[in-house]
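>> received
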Amino acid sequence: MIFLQRQTVKSLTTAAGIWATSGIGMAIGAGLYWIGISVTVLILIAQVLLHGRFNWLEGPKTEQLVVRMEDQPGAVESLQRILADKSIAILNFQAEKWSKKEDPVIELEMVVRLPSHLTLQQLMTLIQEVNEVRTVSMH
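>> returned
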């Protein structure tokens, strides 16, 4: 099965592997041993090459973040501005206020797309630069 999760396609290689395995099995079952063995070797080579750490094959990463911050005027806009300055796209955004008289808090759930040069650690450090941010977590 192929899933779309957090704006990213998941299980595509698993589905392709199942189809490839069934094709190899049919070739072997039909007596086409040379084709079955050749395709098996070809798939193994492709798996080794394509699952290595090749930066040129990496696409943009998406992450789901939960940010709790003080509900101060301009706090959310400040966070959005910092993300935009680093070319981080906000794909999905939801805000919920937690109303406590002495301590108003706003919780932001967002899905962001990171540029390929930005690491998760850099993203966390960047978000924590906003003075109103209390906690950041990833899901």
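>> The two ends are 22 Å apart (CA to CA).
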